[in-house]
Write a structure and sequence with these properties.
36% helix; flat
Length: 200
């Protein structure tokens, strides 16, 4: 979030205020683009103030929101988990489909400019994925966007979201166990330890 304060100094008319405070957000798809935009905002604010013989100050949050980027491996795991959860059965919207259980993974064709707290988590780990859980249903009247006055949450979808989270956790544990087993199988046997035991 950037804030610009313009101060016109003495001699301003009674119609034009002596100072104004503007605030907004700057969003970008990459950290490099964000840094470039941040520098450009500073330059533009300073130039506008100088043009109108004003003083301006730009304030940035101590830790601005950076881009939210998905890890490719984690995204692949999500698509695999969703496919497994959605194999066969009755659809959640009341229809029948032999290939899906009302859940399907769809990759966004274009990146979004959403500002998410998850971006901080994704930057702190190498295997994170951010995804939207679609809850829209024309039959239930829940097909309106999140940022509208007509949005209604379909609480029945919360169980589906919880199932996806749990399945992702189990998938990660299974992959870690397979990697550990492969490493152990390929390693030379170590010295015997008296009284030693395997622990999980």
């Amino acid at each position: 979030v950037t804030v610009a304060r313009f101060n016109s100094g003495e001699g301003a008319s009674n119609v034009i205020p002596d100072s104004v405070r503007l605030s907004g957000t700057v969003r970008a798809l990459t950290s490099e683009a964000f840094d470039a935009l941040r520098s450009r905002v500073d330059e533009v604010v300073a130039s506008v103030a100088r043009t109108h013989r004003c003083e301006a100050q730009v304030e940035w949050e101590a830790q601005p929101y950076g881009p939210t980027s998905n890890d490719a491996a984690a995204e692949l795991a999500l698509s695999r988990v969703v496919a497994r959860l959605g194999s066969g059965g009755e659809r959640s919207d009341g229809g029948n489909d032999s290939s899906t259980n009302g859940i399907a993974y769809e990759r966004a064709l274009e990146p979004t400019m959403a500002a998410e707290d998850f971006g901080f988590l994704a930057s702190a780990t190498t295997s994170a994925v951010f995804a939207f859980l679609g809850t829209g249903s024309e039959r239930k009247g829940t097909g309106h966007g999140l940022h509208t006055s007509r949005f209604v949450m379909d609480d029945e979808q919360l169980a589906l979201g919880a199932a996806v989270h749990a399945a992702m956790a189990l998938d990660g544990l299974e992959r870690a166990a397979r990697e550990a087993a492969a490493t152990t199988a390929g390693a030379a046997p170590g010295p015997a330890v008296s009284g030693g035991r395997d622990e999980l």
